From TrEMBL:
Record membrane topology: Multi-pass membrane protein
Superkingdom as given in the UniProt entry: Eukaryota
Species this chain originates from: Camellia sinensis
Protein name: PGG domain-containing protein
Residue ranges of the TM segments: 76-93, 125-148, 160-185, 197-220
Main subcellular location: membrane
Keyword check for Transmembrane helix: yes
UniProt cross-references to Pfam families, sorted A to Z: PGG
C-alpha cells in the first residue's frame, strides 16, 4: 500500500510541479498511456495512474497525432475558413448577372431596381445558388467559431464534427461554383457544360459521402474498441481481486 501511495505522490508531483509533455513519444511512437496499456497487468495502481495522466491531458499515440495535426494546422484552417466565408458572402451579395438598374412594371419583364437578374432568368437555380452560398457562409463561420472557442479536439467526437463542417463548407462552395458557371455560359454551349458540371458534382458528392461514411465508421469502431477494452480490463481486475480474496492469509 505504501508503494502505491509513493507512486501516486511522485506522479502527482511531476505533473503539477514540473513542465512535462505528457504526450511525448518514445522511439516506438508510444506515449505514456500507450505504455501503461501494455503493462497494465503488471501495475497494481494502473487505474489511478491512468486517471492522473488523463487529467493532465495525456492521450494515446493515435489521438495525440490528431491533436498535434490540428494544433499545427489550426491557423491554416482558420485562414481557409475565413477566405471561404468571404467568397460566400460576396457570392450572396453579388450573384452572377448582377442586379437590375431600373424598375419596370411591364407584365413580361416586371422587376425592381436592386433585384437579382439571376432570380428573373433562372428562378430555380437562383434558389439553389442562395442556399448553397448561405450554407457555405454559415459553415465557414461555424468552423471559425469551433477553432477559437478552444473545444477539446482530442475528443474524437469534436474532431469528427469539425471535419464534417469543413466537408460541408467545401461541398457547398463547389455547388455554388457549378451553378455560377451554368448561369454565365451562353445558351449555345450550356448543354455540354451543364452535363460536365453535373457529372463532376455527382462524383464530388459521392466522394464526400464515401469519406464521410468511412470516418463515421472509424469513429464508431474506435469508440466500441475503447469501451470493450475498458470492459476487459475491469473484468480482469475483478477476477484478480476475487482470486486474492480467496487466498489464505
Amino acid at each position: 500500500m505504501k508503494g502505491k501511495v509513493d507512486v501516486l505522490k511522485s506522479l502527482n508531483y511531476l505533473l503539477t510541479n514540473a513542465t512535462l509533455d505528457v504526450n511525448i513519444k518514445n522511439a516506438s511512437e508510444y506515449t505514456a498511456l500507450d505504455i501503461l496499456a501494455q503493462i497494465r497487468k503488471d501495475v497494481k495502481n494502473s487505474n489511478d495512474i491512468e486517471k492522473k495522466l488523463k487529467e493532465a491531458g495525456a492521450m494515446r499515440g493515435k489521438d495525440a497525432g490528431q491533436s498535434e495535426w490540428l494544433t499545427k494546422k489550426k491557423e491554416t484552417i482558420m485562414l481557409v475558413a475565413t477566405l471561404i466565408a468571404t467568397i460566400a458572402f460576396q457570392a450572396g451579395m453579388n450573384p452572377p448577372g448582377g442586379f437590375w438598374q431600373d424598375t419596370s412594371d411591364k407584365p413580361s419583364n416586371k422587376h425592381r431596381a436592386g433585384d437579382a437578374i439571376m432570380d428573373y432568368n433562372y428562378p430555380h437555380l437562383y434558389l439553389y445558388f442562395i442556399r448553397a452560398s448561405t450554407i457555405g457562409f454559415v459553415a465557414s463561420l461555424s468552423t471559425i467559431l469551433l477553432l477559437i472557442t478552444g473545444l477539446p479536439f482530442k475528443k474524437r467526437i469534436f474532431m469528427w464534427i469539425l471535419v464534417a463542417i469543413i466537408w460541408l463548407t467545401i461541398t457547398s462552395m463547389a455547388v455554388t461554383f457549378a451553378i455560377s458557371i451554368v448561369v454565365i455560359t451562353p445558351r449555345v454551349d450550356r448543354e455540354p457544360i451543364s452535363h460536365t458540371i453535373g457529372v463532376a458534382v455527382i462524383v464530388w458528392c459521392s466522394l464526400m459521402g464515401i469519406l464521410f461514411l468511412v470516418h463515421t465508421a472509424r469513429l464508431l469502431k474506435e469508440a466500441i474498441d475503447e469501451k470493450w477494452s475498458r470492459h476487459l480490463v475491469t473484468k480482469r481486475i475483478k477476477k484478480i481481486n476475487s482470486l486474492k480474496s480467496h487466498q489464505p492469509i
